[in-house]
Amino acid sequence: MRRSTAPPRVLTVAGSDSGGGAGIQADLKAMLALGVHGMSVLTAVTAQNSLGVQGAWELPVDAVRAQFRSVVDDIGVQAVKTGMLASAELVEAVAELLAGVGAPVVVDPVGVSKHGDPLLASSALDSVRHKLLPLATVATPNLDEVAQLTGVRVEVEADLRRAAGAVLDFGPRWVLIKGGHLRGEAVDLLSDGEEEHWLRAPRHDNRHTHGTGCTLASALAAQLARGERVPAAARAAKAYVTGAIERGFALGEGIGPVDHGWRWR
Question: What contacts 222, CB < 8 A, 6 or more positions away?
Answer without folding.
Answer: 8, 10, 30, 31, 34, 35, 36, 79, 237
